[in-house]
From TrEMBL:
It comes from the Bacteria. The gene is pgi. Belongs to the GPI family. Signal peptide: none annotated. Gene3D superfamilies: Glucose-6-phosphate isomerase like protein, domain 1 (3.40.50.10490). This is Glucose-6-phosphate isomerase.
Amino acid sequence: AYLNFDSSKLTKFVHDNELAEMQAMVNAADSELRNGTGAGSDFRDWLDLPTNYDHEEFDRIKKAAAKINQDSKYLITIGIGGSYLGAQMALDFLHNNFYTREEETTQVVFAGNSLSSTYLQDLIELVGDADFSINIISKSGTTTEPAVAFRVFKEILIAKYGEEEANKRIYATTDANRGALKEEADANGWETFVIPDGVGGRFSVLTAVGLLPIAVSGADIDELMKGARDAQNEYVDADLTKNEAYQYAALRNILYRKGFTTELLENYEPNMRMFSEWWKQLMGESEGKDQKGIYPSSANFTTDLHSLGQYIQEGLRNLFETVVKVDKPTKDIKIPSQEGNLDGLEYLQGKSMDWVNTKAYEGVVLAHTDGGVPVMTVHIPDQSAYTLGYTIYFFEVAVGISGYLNGINPFNQPGVEAYKTNMFGLLGKPGYEEIGKKLNDQL
Ligand code: PA5
């Protein structure tokens, strides 16, 4: 397999027979996922997206990216949740840690993923007089956070370029037929890209949602899709001995039933922090429902070994860890020699820094295992676009199986509506007057 899933350090927590004993349940989950007999079956189109995507649109994405690279210093990418996290994590994963400071290319900057006025004003000041375009991304077309940010930047865009040119600088990624954004796009002649009906927000990174900003950043979206396509072909067998994504799903379920109810996704690369944020949405929104589910959390190592490390080693024993370890770093550095050895580091001179990082990882795995924390590792070969596509698909297919193993609908998200209703009531949105009155009384 291209990725290498290592569960060998679980022996203290999971007996040899346990995985095989999950096979019948995995077969059932596989059948629900593949045959559409499970709950939420209308939202499984991400499963064959890497082979069955709209090639005409894919080419339009590349053309739009080329135009934006020509005429814009900034691409204001506006979206939240599934319409944001995938693009941000991919940009971070694929580029230099300081890539936003490179002058030559279009800078992809994000807005509409919070309601912070300070953030938005800071961004307006960053863009200043520079040329820019907007990619507004919203499946529903009505989400408040992106809608507010879009209004603000649309006004600036029109003031700067006039309506006609502004309309050529707005790219709308939304539903094929429905929603306020689709209507506005059609009315103004904006170029539109589609979030397919059968792909939920958190599974949409390999649609135009992720692909346009990723292409604008200069990353290779063909390779990204190729990696996902190869993973699609790799993780098809329901046989647990042959399918590592399914093994991961089954082992998380085994651990969950033993009381390990919080999973930490971990990395040893600072530019994978957002990968964990993307993964947290994928896992949390898919599995946290019906008053059950593993709580997805994350830690960034070795940084957080100096903060969360104490808790992980000795705190409440409900944690397990999944490390996504890059086997070959994008860049490596040799540790220099220093006369006098005053810092006491001479025993490391000439060693590669990544070797030290890997020794830290090995030491942590053994220490945490000793401390009562089960640790699994997904080894990924490198931080290429191909590997990212592959890894995205690994976790997507794993959460589909994992959700069905836990008897929930992995593809809906009814819980995200509750706060919205309250917010609309408090904001005085037409139609929400009664709930607004009730809530204001409570406040
Ligand atoms: O996964 C989800 O459904 C959510 O995180 C949505 O992606 C998020 O709420 C944004 O929704 P929309 O794309 O409709 O603006």
